[in-house]
Amino acid sequence: MNQTTVMVLIFGLVVVFAIAWMFFRQRRSRGLRTHFGPEYDRLINEKGSRGRAEAELGQREKRVKRFSIRALPRDVSARYVQKWNEQQARFVDEPKAAVVEADHLVEEVMKERGYPVGEFEQRAADVSVDHPRVVENYRAAHEIALRDQRGQASTEDLRAAMIYYRDLFRELLDEPEPVGVTSR
Fold it and tell me: Is residue 157 a contact partner of residue 91, using CB atoms and an 8 Å limit?
């Protein structure tokens, strides 16, 4: 084998590895985008690059894999549903208090299922791994609750927050949405 042949083979191997790496990266990106949906796009905007966003999502997945996430027994789930129904009824007379309690109920269920319940951003990041469809709503509900603390949320805003919390609450309980009921 002469030197030219060796160089052509090395160049060919580099090209094959580069193509394989690009294919793997595109496949990984497509998988993350499919799984995380709007959270994927939100994180790209926040981080400023696809690479940093994907690294963050990968870290989230690894972190959540270490948790012992478990389904709730029927009786515990039924107790939480009862508490939720009480807050929905309370909303009519005390919307602000009902939203505060809805946030607490979501946090309680997360804790009971095995999610750590530290600061909000970490909770949202953790829940995005298993419940990416509703994490955007969870963020919106939390933002409304913060605006309400500053006296800047209307009753309609609070109603939206209750709906957003309800969506996550149902997913955390693995409770399907009743037929004929829309979340928004």
Answer: no
Identify residue 175 by its one-letter amino acid code. E
Tokens 């997945």 map to which residue?
61
Mean pLDDT for each 10-residue chunk of the chain (184 residues)?
84 85 81 88 92 94 93 94 95 95 96 92 94 93 96 96 96 62 41
- Between CA 138 and CA 123 the distance in angstroms is 10
**Model pTM score:** 0.79
Enter the tokens of residue 23. 């294919």
Judge contact between 140 and 160, C-beta under 8 A: yes
Q: Contact at 8 Å (CB) between 118 and 180?
A: no
What is d(CA 73, CA 147) in angstroms, rounded to the nearest whole number? 35
Domain ranges of the chain: 3-65, 74-172
